[in-house]
Amino acid sequence: MNDLLRVHGGAPLTGELTVRGAKNFVSKAMVAALLGETSSVLRNVPLIRDVDVVAGLLRLHGVRVEYDDDAGELHFDSSNVESAHVRDIDAHAGSSRIPILFCGPLLHRIGEAFIPDLGGCHIGDRPIDFHLAILRQFGAVVDKQEQGIHITAPGGLHGTKVELPYPSVGATEQTLLTAVRASGKTELKNAAIEPEIMDLIAVLQKMGAIISVDTDRVIRVEGVERLEGFVHTSLPDRIEAASWASAALATRGDIFVRGATQPDMMTFLNTFRKVGGAFHIDDQGIRFFHPGGRLNSIVLETDVHPGFMTDWQQPLVVALTQAEGLSIVHETVYENRFGFTEALNAMGAQIQLYRECLGGLECRFGQRNFYHSAAISGPTPLHAADIVVPDLRGGFSHLIAALAAEGTSTVLGIEVINRGYEHFMRKLAALGANVEAG
Ligand code: EPZ
User: Fold this and answer.
1) Beta bridge partners of 219
2) CA of 169 relative to ligand 1 center, distance in Å
3) Residue span of the structural domain in which 216 resides
4) How far is the CA of 126 from the centre of ligand 1 (A)?
5) Are residues 207 and 279 both part of a single domain?
């Protein structure tokens, strides 16, 4: 696909599209398949680049992976897991952070793991210190080498007590994927409890794991000696669904998102309604639309579940440029997730960034040099511009802004959007967007 898109904006997006499984669950369930001694099937899998990357990594480790696009199904045979060559792993993993989650499963299956320098979106430092500390607690030996990190477990992996400094999604998954086959019991305090994590726990339980989730962010795991494969249907991608909802609002459009479900989007739906967006929920999906009239400014803080997801923030900010008055958005999950607002300002938005915690709560980033609060004055008409996509969600936001703006914008680097938005060009066409490649 050509990496440049010409967007003739200024028209509402209207129509229907389908959202399939959640990128941030599917990639983890694929890693879980590595733990099963028998074959697994994952359903409702979207055709996105992150799925390709993880499938490639699994194949490098001897797992047979087949994808049926029409059915949206992945089939895994992980009966013969083997070590992969360092250079191959490095070449393959470049754009993803998922390799860090291979550690526990690989240690259990073949006794060693190699992790190259990690990719992922540049939205903050994104360290892996929690992950390495957890692995060490289980008994792993971490050897930092020039090409990456080599991990072994000469004395085996043993259940342990972990308390996370912050409810990190990845670190919670790391603990789960390692604890399920470690000997003895593991207790994880201050765990993340995102719906994608609950779905991963469901997969692991189907495989034979024993995991309980208490009400106070405490997860307990009793290790078992063997895990089987699973058959599972992914929960829908609530980030993609919310992205299209924000696109409907920003372009004064009307989009039916087939596959979107209410329970995991409650916090988003409340905010969408407060801004002045309208929605109708039925058994097939959710229709998001601009009801006419003015949009309202709001004060918003991102947070871990059940708070407002950080990944919902960027697309919604585009809609907030069209709201009446001053909106405040305080980003408390990542220290550096407002880089995309520079391009919005170049298109006519008025967004000012602050180091202070503007939302009301003091977060980890207050009193430090991170511009992690935004004040958005609106409404400001957006005009066309030449934009370079910075990261996945920021890039999608730029696309929405270009679609809402009068005139023809060029958006460079749209390949990044394929990491997490399935068939987005096809979906844009179905919504009547006037876009052309090159
Ligand atoms: C997952 O990233 C998602 N990625 C992110 O989605 C999402 O934004 C994030 O969770 C929060 O919901 C995937 O699932 C592949 P974290 P993850 O560990 O697990 C700090 C998208 O656009 N931290 O919960 O990497 C970290 O810097 C992506 O789909 C450490 O300090 O996120 C951040 O400030 C972007 N040390 C905070 O914790 C560590 O070792 C939360 O990160 C790990 C994390």
Assistant:
1) 188, 213
2) 6
3) 23-233
4) 7
5) no
Cα 167 to middle of ligand 1, angstroms: 10
pLDDT in tens, 34-56: 999 999 999 999 999 899 999 99
Which amino acids bring their CB within 6 angstroms of ligand 1?
23-24, 27, 97, 121, 124-131, 166, 168-171, 192, 239, 310-311, 333-334, 392-393, 420
Task: Write the pLDDT tens digit of every residue in 125-137.
Answer: 568 899 999 999 9
Closest CA to ligand 1's atom 19:
170
Which of 183, 214, 233 is at the close of a domain?
A: 233
Domain of 355, CATH number, reads 3.65.10.10
Q: Provide the pLDDT confidence category of residue 145 given band limits of 50, 70 and 90.
A: confident
Of the residues 180, 212, 233, the one at which a domain ends = 233
Q: Whose CA is nearest to atom 27 of ligand 1?
A: 126
What would the mean pLDDT of 374-382 be, rounded to a whole number?
Answer: 97
CA distance 343 to 389: 9
Q: What is the pLDDT of residue 178?
A: 98
Together in a domain, 244 and 203: no
Task: Work out the average pLDDT over 329-356.
Answer: 97
Are both 253 and 183 inside the same structural domain?
Answer: no
Same domain? For 81 and 205 the reply is yes
Count of domains observed in the chain: 2
Q: Which atom of ligand 1 is nearest to the CA of 24?
A: 14
> Can you name the residues that pair with 410 across neighbouring β-strands?
6, 386
| Residue 179: other Cβ atoms inside 10 A | 30
Report angle CA 409, 417, 397 to the nearest 5 degrees.
55
User: Cα–chain-centroid distance for residue 356?
Assistant: 26
How much is the average pLDDT of 282-302?
97
Same domain, 184 and 56: yes
Domain co-membership, 14 together with 34:
no
Q: Which ranges of 251-335 does DSSP label H, i.e. alpha helix?
A: 266-275, 310-320
> How is 330-379 classified by DSSP, letter by letter?
E--S-TT--TTHHHHHHTT-EEEEESS--SSS--TTTTTT---EEEEEE-
Q: Is 121 a catalytic residue?
A: yes
Q: How far is the CA of 116 from the centre of ligand 1 (A)?
A: 18
Question: Whose C-alpha lies nearest to ligand 1, atom 31?
Answer: 127
Looking at the fold, whether 215 and 247 belong to one and the same domain comes out as: no
pLDDT band at 121 (very low <50, low <70, confident <90, very high): low
- Based on the domain organization, do 8 and 54 belong to the same domain? no
Q: How confident is the model at residue 162 (pLDDT cuts 50, 70, 90)?
A: very high
